[in-house]
């Protein structure tokens, strides 16, 4: 068994190795309370204090954002108070990617920060690896897909084998999670492109075009 952990402080589930990703997707989609506190209304930006009912629980907000009420509505806001929490694992840093084949990569990261305390007994840490991607000759951040859970690891590294599509741009991020919640995601990795049929097509196209151009000139 993997053990119990959660993205939010009040939701934990026991999962097996075969159900890692499906269980986490379901956990993240269910109602739960995320760690941290809603910011003081006096420090809200005009965008945060918009007159809108945008959520009804923390689980409806992306990433670490909490569902917070204010004078004019209910919106998702980044929580405060996470930096001082010693019962949450530190945010992974220095995410490195090593690509060996078109569909085989190794991810490594480090935990740097405050001393992590396991006084609550919820200290088993799981690393949630997410990816987003696009296909095309150029990397355009505006065209990337939404972040999707790709892997769950118990150690500060992961190997993704046969899970990447050829000819795609990829970017990864990692969150450390325990039974009390998470402090958030690492900085996204550098974008990289897998080799595949798309590159072969482009090479073939321009090579033939160059040959035809030479034939016309001669």
Automatic annotation (TrEMBL):
Gene3D superfamilies reported for this sequence: Elafin-like, Immunoglobulins
InterPro entries recorded: Anosmin-1, Elafin-like_sf, FN3_dom, FN3_sf, Ig-like_fold, WAP_dom
Gene Ontology BP terms: neuron differentiation
Boundaries of every Fibronectin type-III domain copy: 91-197
A GO molecular-function descriptor: peptidase inhibitor activity
This protein's name: Anosmin-1
Transmembrane feature ranges: none
Domain WAP: 31-80
GO cellular component: cell surface; extracellular region
Pfam family membership, one: WAP
């Amino acid at each position: 068994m993997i053990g119990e952990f959660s993205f939010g402080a009040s939701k934990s589930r026991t999962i097996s190795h075969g159900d890692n990703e499906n269980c986490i997707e379901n956990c993240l989609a269910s109602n739960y309370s995320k760690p941290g506190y809603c910011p003081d209304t006096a420090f809200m930006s005009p965008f945060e204090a918009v007159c809108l009912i945008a959520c009804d629980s923390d689980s409806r907000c992306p990433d670490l954002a909490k569902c917070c009420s204010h004078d004019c509505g209910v919106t998702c806001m980044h929580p405060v108070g996470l930096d001082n929490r010693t019962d949450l694992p530190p945010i992974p840093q220095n995410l490195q990617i090593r690509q060996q084949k078109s569909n085989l990569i190794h991810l490594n990261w480090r935990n740097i920060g405050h001393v992590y305390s396991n006084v609550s007994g919820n200290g088993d840490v799981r690393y949630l690896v997410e990816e987003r991607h696009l296909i095309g000759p150029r990397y355009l951040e505006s065209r990337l897909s939404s972040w999707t859970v790709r892997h769950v690891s118990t150690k500060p590294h992961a190997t993704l084998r046969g899970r990447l599509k050829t000819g795609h741009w990829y970017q990864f991020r990692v969150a450390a999670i325990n039974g009390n919640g998470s402090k958030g995601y690492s900085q996204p990795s550098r974008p990289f492109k897998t080799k595949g049929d798309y590159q072969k097509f482009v090479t073939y196209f321009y090579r033939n075009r160059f040959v035809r151009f030479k034939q016309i000139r001669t």
